């Protein structure tokens, strides 16, 4: 187990480092002068010179990269041109919206998908299976931002039960804040739940074919108990793996859905930074999101390996 | 002759319909898709405009038809790029063994750290919004996925006896790859490419919704949804039709992928019902 942990940690560090190189390299590929791109052609020469100095454009590329990564390790993502504030502070402020949104949708999708997948497996080839797989097929086909618009249309415009957008802040109370996050979380959760329900169903069916299940049935264990106590725990390993992989799609979905609901999260910050040509914010947010995905995937791998020794051996 | 799975039939029908609409838009649309008629703005569906008009008075059906062409073109180019770079990379990694494998695995990890939409946003931040940058970003993601899938499938083929026999007879690894390995991985690559096509359509729509994908006046389903959102109170149906077009296209392509997989390898039957 220790060897596996060390190997996984090494892979995590390598991938995170490669991610910083990739983000840095893409922004280095800006055609022409990045400072000019950010400030526009009408910028004053001294303002341009100041920004060039702040971005280190007068220094060699390797030095710039080393300074930037050293800053990252200290939690320094640079200073935003638009907000004139450290990017790390902006990211921290926006995380209080994005993180609860992601966790809420993750909880919703998991809580819906596992019982649905289990139901489909238990009723294989019958009405319940058809209904769940039909939902899964449709859920995968509907983009989260369209679901978001349909939810606004139904629950905000027609019924008036939920706000169509915006976020009152946690200081307004947990209730109003959660109410503002509920529809976006549902929009993100539906496609995730659809994929997870399919995976749960397949994993449970695979497990049901194994010897220990037959033995349990032969010993007189009831069908429901076999499903819940024997098949489900084993099926959760592939489900957890897919959950980890789905996280990157959740991050991407959140970027778009936050904009549908004008939620002041990381996705909205990123989108606005592009409009404002604030490359320092873009660079900071993208690297934070990429490292987040890499770290969570590694944690899922480690958690799965602790439960199931087979991946460790390979 | 093995019976075609129902999902394959349904998928083929939906994709054929999508293709037919896209091709028809080349020669005919009810109205020019970019024709602005302010007097006819936000009309509900009716006899003249079957799906109504948008906030500029443009015919929604015509825009959806041309949008189908745009979505299909971007999806095809993104998948094409993925195939051109991903498949040879995957084949090479499988043929080279451990080192090729390790390098590809790390590159794959790196690309998966950036969801396709995020890489596209990063690229458009640097190079500007537009269809070309969307294709580049989605193509890069597809290349990583296809390289990984090809490598896995090719490794299994390399272990089979007929490949070992070919090597024992003195065939070069390149020739073995082209003559024996490639035809045997083509099926699984086709299935994956179909699914990636669907993913590319959704991602293009999301980026166009944000204004980073296809640029006006060229219609895009995602952009149409973005515009419709600002008129939800007055013209709610405008937020339904482009979304339906996206969902039906993705449904068709995923059903096609599922059906192809079941047809090519019945042991891999996933749904059991479709």
Automatic annotation (TrEMBL), chain A:
The keyword RNA-binding does not apply. GO terms for molecular function: dipeptide transmembrane transporter activity. It is found in: Cell membrane. It is a multi-pass membrane protein. It holds the Pfam family BPD_transp_1. It comes from the Bacteria. InterPro entries: BPD_transp_1_N, MetI-like, MetI-like_sf. The keyword Ion transport does not apply. Keywords: Cell membrane, Membrane, Transmembrane, Transmembrane helix, Transport. The chain crosses the membrane at residues 101-122, 134-157, 177-197, 235-261, 281-307. GO terms for cellular component: plasma membrane. Residues 95-300 form the ABC transmembrane type-1 domain. Its main location: membrane. Belongs to the binding-protein-dependent transport system permease family. This is ABC transporter permease. It comes from Azospirillum doebereinerae.
């Amino acid at each position: 187990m220790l060897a596996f942990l060390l190997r996984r940690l090494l892979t995590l560090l390598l991938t995170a480092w490669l991610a910083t190189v990739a983000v840095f390299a893409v922004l280095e590929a800006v055609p022409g002068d990045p400072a000019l791109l950010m400030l526009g052609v009408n910028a004053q020469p001294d303002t341009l010179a100041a920004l060039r100095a702040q971005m280190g454009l007068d220094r060699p590329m390797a030095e710039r990269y080393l300074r930037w990564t050293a800053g990252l390790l200290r939690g320094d993502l640079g200073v935003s041109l638009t907000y004139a504030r450290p990017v790390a502070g902006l990211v921290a402020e926006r995380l209080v919206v994005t993180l609860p949104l992601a966790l809420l949708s993750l909880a919703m999708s998991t809580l819906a998908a596992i019982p649905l997948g289990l139901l489909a497996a238990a009723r294989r080839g019958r009405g319940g299976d058809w209904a769940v797989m039909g939902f899964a097929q449709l859920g995968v086909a509907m983009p989260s931002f369209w679901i978001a618009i349909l939810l606004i249309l139904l629950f905000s415009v027609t019924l008036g039960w939920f706000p169509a957008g915006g976020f009152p802040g946690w200081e307004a109370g947990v209730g109003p804040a959660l109410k503002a996050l509920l529809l976006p979380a549902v929009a993100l959760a539906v496609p995730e739940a659809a994929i997870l329900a399919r995976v749960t169903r397949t994993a449970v069916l695979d497990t049901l074919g194994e010897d220990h299940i037959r033995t349990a049935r032969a010993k007189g264990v009831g069908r429901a108990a076999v499903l819940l106590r024997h098949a489900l725990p084993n099926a959760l390993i592939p489900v957890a793996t897919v959950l980890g992989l789905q996280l990157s799609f959740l991050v991407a979905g959140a970027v778009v859905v936050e904009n549908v609901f004008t939620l002041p999260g990381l996705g909205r910050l990123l989108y606005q930074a592009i409009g404002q040509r604030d490359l320092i914010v873009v660079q900071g947010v993208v690297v934070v999101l990429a490292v987040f995905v890499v770290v969570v995937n590694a944690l899922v791998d480690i958690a799965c390996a602790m439960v199931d020794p087979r991946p460790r051996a390979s | 002759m093995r019976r075609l799975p129902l999902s394959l039939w349904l998928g083929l029908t939906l994709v054929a319909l999508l293709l037919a609409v896209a091709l028809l838009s080349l020669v005919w649309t009810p109205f020019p898709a970019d024709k602005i008629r302010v007097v006819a703005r936000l009309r509900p569906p009716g006899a003249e405009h079957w799906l109504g008009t948008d906030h500029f008075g443009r015919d929604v059906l015509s825009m959806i038809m041309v949008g189908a062409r745009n979505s299909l073109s971007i999806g095809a180019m993104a998948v094409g790029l993925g195939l051109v770079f991903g498949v040879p990379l995957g084949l090479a990694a499988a043929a080279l063994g451990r080192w090729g494998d390790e390098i590809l695995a790390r590159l794959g990890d790196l690309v998966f750290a950036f969801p396709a939409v995020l890489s596209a946003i990063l690229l458009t931040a640097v190079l500007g919004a537009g269809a070309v940058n969307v294709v580049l970003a989605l193509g890069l993601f597809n290349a990583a996925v296809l390289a990984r899938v090809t490598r896995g499938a090719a490794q299994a083929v390399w272990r089979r006896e007929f490949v070992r026999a070919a090597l024992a007879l003195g065939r070069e690894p390149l020739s073995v790859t082209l003559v024996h390995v490639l035809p045997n991985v083509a099926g699984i690559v086709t299935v994956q490419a179909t699914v990636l096509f669907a993913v590319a359509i959704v991602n293009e729509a999301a980026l166009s919704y944000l204004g980073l994908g296809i640029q006006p006046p060229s219609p895009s389903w995602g952009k149409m949804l973005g515009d419709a959102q600002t008129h939800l109170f007055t013209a709610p149906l405008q937020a339904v039709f482009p979304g339906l077009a996206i969902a039906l296209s993705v449904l068709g392509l995923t059903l096609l992928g599922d059906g192809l997989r079941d047809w090519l390898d019945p042991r891999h039957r996933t749904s059991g019902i479709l």
